[in-house]
Amino acid sequence: MKIEKEPITGNYGKFEIDGVKHRIYWEEAGEGIPLVCLHTAGSDGRQYRALLNDKKILKKYRVIVFDMPWHGKSSPPENSQVGHYKLSTESYISQIMSFIDGLELVKPVVMGCSIGGRIILHLAIHFPEKFKALIGLQSAGHLDPYYDISWLHRQDVHGGEVCGGIAYGLMAPTSPENDKFETMWHYMQGGPGIFKGDLFFYKFDGNIGTEIKKIDNSKCPIFLLTGEYDYSATPEETKSLADTIGIAMIKMKNVGHFPMSENPEEFLKYLHPVLEKIN
What we know:
Blueprint: E1 9-17, E2 20-30, E3 33-38, H1 49-52, H2 55-58, E4 61-66, H3 89-102, E5 109-113, H4 115-126, E6 133-137, H5 159-169, H6 177-188, H7 194-205, E7 222-227, H8 235-245, E8 249-252, H9 259-262, H10 264-277
Parallel strand pairs: 3-4, 3-5, 5-6, 6-7, 7-8
Antiparallel strand pairs: 1-2, 2-4
Helix pairs in contact: 5-6
């Protein structure tokens, strides 16, 4: 039987991030406006497979998805040790900008989910002129505590199963079970302590506070989309952000915290009109 080959190509490259060489993996498909997609904490770029295969999007956009250092097929920096990983706002911005500069992308659109939805707010504050548009999925200015993250990296528990369980609980009951399982499976494959280290940014270092008032939507269009079932970055929290920026948010039905992977068919119904607005 002849296989149906997907249009995705995979690549490795050396990028200098904060003066240190990193071996980064990324996938891409399509032509046109660069659309750089940022995965969630503790997972990797496989979350965006639906976008990388969407013929409508690929006619207008060059979709590019990279695995953060320590995640997926990307390597840790040299001389790294387990248990020392913590994602800071500064290091997160540095890896995104190093990746964009390394591929010589001019005015890309950047879309991120969860921690990616938080970091696009920081990008909007500090580098609005660098982007054609910014899209935040499950964006929130801060995270109210709702679980003890020490369980994510302990010797007496299976870290992958705990991470997968937390991820599964953040998804909508209306999302297809096959897609929910795959999303959970990505979390179960993460390295020891990586999800916990990403949440240092999400819970503490990346809290945006009153800085959100510095965002000027006229300098760079911002779009905020949030699933109705998310109890981490809630629709109410995203609406508060949108009201402060002076834009409308899009509340997505039938999806939770991982719209692009847990229910891609539903998510694309909301994303297509947004991408059509960007020129």
